[in-house]
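Bug report (template v2)

What were you trying to do?
Predict the complex of my protein with zinc ion.

What happened?
Run completed; filing so the output is reviewed.

Input:
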Amino acid sequence: MDALIIVDIQKDFLPGGALAVSQGDEVIPVVNALQKHFDLIVATQDYHPASHLSFAANHKGKNPGDHIDLKGLDQVLWPIHCVQGSEGAAFADRLEMTKVKKIFQKGSDPEIDSYSGFYDNGHLKSTGLGDYLRQKGVDRVVIAGLAADYCVKFTALDAKGLGFDTVVVKDGTRAVNLKEDDFERALEEMEAQGIKVVGSQEIIKK
Ligand SMILES: [Zn+2]
């Protein structure tokens, strides 16, 4: 059984948003087309309290892009984004959501960030996504969304680590690219762990 995991396609990650991923909106038609080929679709949603410690604004004298030590983990600081209940945290208007069976929120603990849809960055707490997929009999997950070098990558690495056959859709994702080759490096890192990177046509044509 296959599942499609749609990662963080939220307004703040789209052009014009608080933490805009360049061309992030271009993944929406790809993801909408992919959805027709799946019986089980879930979505993740970055969903932070305003006090979240991944926000540079919550650290005196710090700017987005700076790094801090957050409870023993290296944490890059971000602009304020995806605050619970805000318009920026909402899913993209054009994203098809009617087939999404369940939404897994992450990043709600103010003291730890959560890139992966499965666990926080310290692997301390599970969102329940792994158990949910297992209960549904899923053995392969296909992942698309934002952003390739953070939440998509860490969701894929955790999926693989949990034993799911894991596929990332290259044209269904875009990267933040704090460094210009972060997209390619993320793809290489995933492939090195046995994650397949494919074009959406490879899934749609079947
Ligand atoms: Zn976030």
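What did the reviewer find?
The helical segments are 27-35, 129-135, 151-161, 182-192, 200-204. The chain is about 20% helix and 25% strand.
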